[in-house]
Amino acid sequence: MGKLSRRLKTCKRCKTPIHENSLREYCSRCYGVVEEVFDKIREYLREYPGATAYEMEQRLGIPIHVINNFIKDGRLVEIPNEHLNIQCLRCNCLLLSAYHKYCPICETEMKNGIQKAKEELSGTLASSKETGKMHLNYYLRKK
């Protein structure tokens, strides 16, 4: 009598047992997470074709080893990138991107600065309108 030999297959991410005939290397819960991350990368690459792994790590917050795993699995393809020595126009850090002129940190700081300037200008305009009305009333009373 022969024993049934079953190879135990485990999820690549969380190591929980999965069915031995499963076509995926992940359990259903982890597969959803992996697909969600891959969808983020896919959308970014649609908007910025030829983006580097380092750039996606900076912009999307996805660790570079996860991106490299997609490359190893054959889900992403590496292509040569001739734009490898581009610097941020503000702080001169290395960008590794042909699509962006500023690093994420500088972009955030500049957006915050612009928003603050808008708020200050709207506050200044509102106060000048009030003082303008007061001056107008003052001159009308004098006549």
Oligomer: single chain
Strand order of the largest sheet: 1-2
Provide the gyration radius in Å.
28 Å
Q: Helix segment count?
A: 4
Computed structural class: mainly alpha
Largest sheet: 2 strands, antiparallel
Output the helix-strand order.
Answer: EEHHHH
What do the pLDDT scores average to? Answer: 80
Separation of the first and last Cα atoms: 118 Å
Which regions are unreliable across 5 or more consecutive residues at pLDDT < 50?
Answer: none
Q: Helix share of residues?
A: 40-55%
- C-alpha geometry: elongated
Tally of strands: 2
Beta-strand percent range: under 5%
Give an overview of the whole structure.
It contains four helices and two strands, in the order ββαααα. The protein has 143 residues and is mostly helical.
Any key phrases for this structure?
single chain, 143 residues, mainly alpha, two-stranded antiparallel ribbon, 4 helices, 53% helix
